[in-house]
């Protein structure tokens, strides 16, 4: 395996790596750094926690040291917390350069950001929405001369998920020069490869880690079949077990909505688990504070929505629990990638209800690996069931009293207005879409029932279970 110096990096950068404890480059670094130094665009696809950040930070710093000016590089990332993490890597590795960086993310003071931008930092790390706002409203800075454009978690930036970056990305792409080096990185690039290739046209170099499985080897991946109604009792039982078994334990729990995240956080605290929440309904300062408390192990459990599923690098995390089975395999890959990073061991446990078995199949097909069953003593779960349900209900009532839903609705409307959309029209469109989906689902169910009836009348055995180990969930103690 090559060493950092053999990749063409200058001695001061090699020394920085050594000081940081990076002894040998990882495969994605070996693959991408020389191509970037040659001046080529680069698309780097490698597993979670495999060192993709340094794969672009190191060559950019080298080029910056040869021709320092501001603004030299723009890095775009989907989440605010990730922007701070990337900035830290630039700062640490670029220390000898006296690197000036600037973080432009939503939820922070815009005037202070505008001032910082006008001081021509070498590197700007931004979320697309806030940077586009600055471009629309200010003429005190320019990204017309940037040498590097980086899209970290590039597939997320390009897909139209719950936060749609397309319009903001368009505004940004109009403001950057055509002559630039574009670097795109993610653990799941291949799904949006065609769109991404349109962005990187300068002798693009595509690097993908060759591996039979798309998740890391050191990750023990489990599923736990739970009846929907008793999910939270299983969760409490799981955490209790992990806490009893491990001295220095640290867990991230992923939920599907901000509200569930908030309720579960309140509930786990009632059970005296040191828990902090991270979701987009929190103020930015609270988000940073929560993350800092978790990183410093003051709190052992971080309960989060997918705002924390990409990129966050917290080496102490040993376990990831998916409170809901992710609807998309790619979300699963990023969530479970918050543990077992940089060669460490880790475990991911996905709670699977009777309605989610097909999602597990889709995940297994994508990652090219079967999940193993995680077994628990059902009798022990039964013992805490009533208590957990009562506490959860109390937390729900408490949260309702804070008008959480109303605040969420107002935030949503604000966001739509900012995106130039009519909130009422959007609501109507959504309701129509939901109606169509319901109709489709009913139709599918009817077809299924007819097929089963026909099979039964022909005397065929009922259709086999989709997977050998995914037996129907046990009749839980509901
Ligand atoms: N050459 C190296 N040797 C050892 N550790 C490294 C090396 N390069 C990076 N690391 C460490 O590996 C960890 C993961 O790196 P990084 O956050 O860049 O992963 P990633 O590939 O971007 O993951 P994700 O897809 O989840 O964003 C970091 O703590 C980083 O400091």
TrEMBL record:
Domain Helicase C-terminal: 218-382
Helicase ATP-binding domain boundaries: 33-207
Enzyme class, UniProt record, top EC level: hydrolase
SUPFAM superfamilies hit by this protein: P-loop containing nucleoside triphosphate hydrolases
Cleavable signal peptide: none
Domain DEAD-box RNA helicase Q: 2-30
Main location: nucleus
GO cellular component, one term: cytosol
Reactions listed under catalytic activity: ATP + H2O = ADP + phosphate + H(+)
Motif, Q motif: chain positions: 2-30
Location(s) in or outside the cell: Nucleus, Nucleolus
Region (Disordered): 443-478
EC number(s) from the headed UniProt entry: 3.6.4.13
GO MF term list: ATP binding; hydrolase activity; RNA binding; RNA helicase activity
Cited Pfam families: DEAD (PF00270), Helicase_C (PF00271)
Keyword RNA-binding: yes
Record's keyword terms, sorted: ATP-binding, Helicase, Hydrolase, Nucleotide-binding, Nucleus, RNA-binding
Function: ATP-dependent RNA helicase that plays a role in various aspects of RNA metabolism including the regulation of mRNA export and the levels of pre-ribosomal RNA. Regulates the stability and synthesis of pre-ribosomal RNA and thereby regulates cell proliferation. Also possesses antiviral activity by recognizing gammaherpesvirus transcripts in the context of lytic reactivation.
Family classification: Belongs to the DEAD box helicase family. DDX49/DBP8 subfamily.
Name of the featured protein: Probable ATP-dependent RNA helicase DDX49
Organism expressing this protein natively: Orycteropus afer afer
Source organism phylogeny: Eukaryota, Metazoa, Chordata, Craniata, Vertebrata
Gene name tied to this protein: DDX49
